[in-house]
Amino acid sequence: AVAGGGSAYTAGIQSKAAKIARKLGPALDQTYSVADSVAAMPTDTIAQRIEKSRAYQQKRYDANRGSAGARGMR
Q: Domain-by-domain residue ranges, the chain?
């Protein structure tokens, strides 16, 4: 720590910030990289993006429901 007023306080804040960054870092990186990859699709119109997203959600929903419903619902 640096000599002078509040050095321990500053060090504490820095270590807390580092801890938060370690926890949130991966999630934030993922979020931003997804956002960047979406932003980097200039050929897609908004409607196309929405449709892609909707189709993907539907596919995931069907997969989840299918695995659950295969146990005797059909």
A: 1-40, 43-74
